Amino acid sequence: MTVSAALTALADKFGEQLRTSQSERDQHGGSETHFNPIAPDAVFYPNSTADVAAAVTICQKYKCPVIPYGTGTSLEGHTLAILGGVSFDFSHMNKVLAVNCEDFDVVVQPGLTRRALNAELRATGLFFPVDPGANASVGGMAATRASGTTTVRYGNMAENVLALEVVLADGRIIRTGSRARKSSTGYDLTKLMVGSEGTLGVITELTLRLHGRPEATAAAICAFDDVADAVDAVIAGIQSGVPTARIELVDSEATRAFNLYGNTDMPEKPHVLLEFHGSHTAVDEQARLFRKIAKDFGASNFEFATKPEDRDALWTLRHNAYYATLALRKGATAVVTDICVPISKLAQAIDETRKDIANSDIPGPILGHVGDGNFHAILLIDPDKPTEKDTALKLGHRMAQRALRLGGTISGEHGIGVGKLDLMADEHDQAWQVMGAIKLALDPHNIMNPGKVVRLN
Amino acid sequence: MTVSAALTALADKFGEQLRTSQSERDQHGGSETHFNPIAPDAVFYPNSTADVAAAVTICQKYKCPVIPYGTGTSLEGHTLAILGGVSFDFSHMNKVLAVNCEDFDVVVQPGLTRRALNAELRATGLFFPVDPGANASVGGMAATRASGTTTVRYGNMAENVLALEVVLADGRIIRTGSRARKSSTGYDLTKLMVGSEGTLGVITELTLRLHGRPEATAAAICAFDDVADAVDAVIAGIQSGVPTARIELVDSEATRAFNLYGNTDMPEKPHVLLEFHGSHTAVDEQARLFRKIAKDFGASNFEFATKPEDRDALWTLRHNAYYATLALRKGATAVVTDICVPISKLAQAIDETRKDIANSDIPGPILGHVGDGNFHAILLIDPDKPTEKDTALKLGHRMAQRALRLGGTISGEHGIGVGKLDLMADEHDQAWQVMGAIKLALDPHNIMNPGKVVRLN
Fold it and tell me: Which end of chain B has fewer CB within 10 Å, C or N?
């Protein structure tokens, strides 16, 4: 009822920008992972911040849910229309508005993808480092506080978003942060919005921090006899202060997936992939230092990739990891887990997780941004067997509890969405109630991506 | 009335932990800068989080203001009891609770000072880098989102606080964040609390990020003919990606203050002080690169200080800058300004500020963490001449407006307190109202350091 009134008002105002065909709705109601699709009632394509503000004002009037949509690559059901409403698709708001080379920053619209951004920056000598694998939109990456392979060196979205423009639930447009590198002027609303998954407001513009392309880049890969050795080598590397731009762990099962998908012939052992950024001297020094440490832990097949094409081949493998592992089991869908622990607990966390997976009948290759203490098991399930999904979700739940027991967090980078709501009280206890109080203060009618992150009574 | 009832209840419960002598009150009602003292009604010395929670619960019951107090070194009147109430002095809660060397983190109580922390860490090879000059408490540093000389390399408090324990206005104890390096589990309450100046809750425990002591450290100093050349050299250094751990500008008047106070004989010209951290090779390379750039901008008297005692002498000078500049004018007090702009606007911001100061009769040496685009003019006023204070405050106000015009912020690191409340709407517009809504949601009776950061109607 209320939603239909909102759709009428939106259609009156925006005409063709509002779409209600089944195919449009279905396209926006899916998920990359195991969640059952739940389509929105309509899809709205804003062209400007003013469009967003006007549409949110209408939605607020009729208490119609607003679900921001980037590329739909999130992994915890963030864009599912669980209470119906309108998906705000930002694909038409995908411009670079200003590149400030001298200040290493860029002002962009939320629908821009990270690859399109880096393509636009190619001539500047600068780049945007945050790299979650998928070619996500920067708005979505900010909303989920994404990170990825380069976080160990360049930080996650929290550290790389300088300022935001946000439309609030009541249609007000606010600006948070500035182009200054730091500020002590009250509550950090930028960092409050980053990671709020669209539940506090809709991001309509972002000022992102850029980094200088390193003078030199070297990539390396090496194999270990077992995961524990690989993890111990990574920990030793981090602790001895070797600065790496990427340190990724791929277990033997994921290596097998890479071989099958990418037509490579790596030994089916755990591998560590690394990248070093800096001056030529520094990169050489770092790579040599890490090799020495890795050899102490029994690393074999240590290979450097200094040519851009070899490096690209290496990282393309890693970027396709999700699809490569999916291909390990024909017709499978995935429960993708995501925990992060203090680095001293990483070996234990991975070891316990591997044993737990081995005791199930579900394949579960492990990949990790191990420099951050963050790893994923990709649990491959037969979508036609509900018991498998149940088993996988329970494995994921135990992983999350394990992370908490070891002083870590239930999500390193994928976020909460609907998939991890049940774990929020376990991680945050009373602090989750505080999140709810903030949500209520900014969105009293609970129209902004309702049912995600917090639970309101 | 309400405050006196609170004091009675607190005295009943805590005995000698509550002090009401005039001298105690006066000690907690002052300010390092130009603000007139406003003493609290009492000073409370908690020994534990439980003490804090119980005392806050009492204060909440009687609507008595709670003002957290570290070392009293804040610069914008953060600890003034403008609505009366109880100063919570954390000097008895100053322990290191756990050092996790493998994870590069430490768990501490808020009353610990940064120097005491680093003294405790000496044997570990790790250090806590944030360095605002004063030997502030880490709780106060978190509350004001402090930064300082090393921010260009290691980040400010926002980037170096991993987790907090906070007592809320209703006495609930929450934990925010974890020891994991990153997390995507809802609203980032840690970063909301950092910089909230005690207005959302009282910090009772902090988990701080540590960094490995660099293998090699080199410091350098050089002189320039004018400030514009110095700033341009810094900008060129930053833009060409020379990694520096510190880049500080000291103008000719501040140099004169250093000479007088520290008994040195530097030429009375603008100086840039630098520090490089890394491996021996990297540090050499960085220092050489910067020297080359500096010489292109006419740098003279380029001196390296690689011996620890020479480096210490250099940075002791910088750390004493505030007291050195104060000593330039006998009996003076200071209006300390603090703006931060995008680095491309730094030369213009400093130039306009210098001209504006030159047009007044007030001495105003300039010092800056110029690698961040952040600088301070220390405006030296005769406390007995109200017109001078008025002139200085107007200069500061124009600096802040200038920062906003240039895309920057009214405070890089000192915070809002009561000193910059009138500028908050200019910087944040509607977003300031959002801060007010968050404050009301978490502290409906406005007892947590009331009158700071936000204004409630």
Answer: C
pLDDT (tens digit per residue) in B330-346? 999 999 999 999 999 99
pLDDT tens by residue, A3-49: 999 999 999 999 999 999 999 999 999 988 899 999 999 999 999 99
ipTM: 0.97
Name A161's Cβ contacts closer than 8 Å, sequence gap at least 6: A142, A177, A190, A191, A194, A206, A207, A208, A209
- The answer to whether A412 contacts B215, with C-beta atoms less than 8 Å apart, is no
Q: Where are the domains of chain B?
A: 2-91, 94-212, 216-323, 329-415
CA distance A192 to A158: 9
Task: For domain A216-323, give its CATH number from 3.30.200.20, 3.30.540.10, 3.30.70.2190, 3.40.50.720.
Answer: 3.30.70.2190
| Interchain pair A183, B416: CB under 8 A | no
CATH number belonging to the domain at A329-425, selected among 3.40.50.720, 3.30.70.2740, 3.40.50.300, 3.40.50.1820:
3.30.70.2740
**A296 secondary structure, DSSP code:** H
pLDDT the model gives residue A240: 84
| Domain A216-323 and domain A329-425 have a common topology | yes
CA distance A114 to chain B (A): 19
The helix (run of H) or strand (run of E) holding residue A142 is: helix A138-143
Question: Residue B348: what pLDDT?
Answer: 95
CA distance, residue B329 to nearest chain A CA (Å): 29
Q: Which residues on neighbouring strands pair with residue B275, listed in sequence order?
A: B219, B246
User: Is any Cβ of chain B less than 8 angstroms from the Cβ of A180?
Assistant: yes
Task: Report d(CA A78, CA A73) in Å as an integer.
Answer: 9
The answer to whether residues A138 and A114 touch, using CB atoms and an 8 Å cutoff, is: yes
Per-residue pLDDT averaged across A265-282, rounded? 93
Do the beta carbons of residue B377 and residue B365 sit within 8 Å? yes
Q: Work out the number of other CB atoms within 10 angstroms of the CB of residue B410.
A: 31
Q: Which fold has domain B329-415?
A: Alpha-Beta Plaits (3.30.70)
Tell me if the domain spanning B2-91 has CATH number 3.40.630.120: no
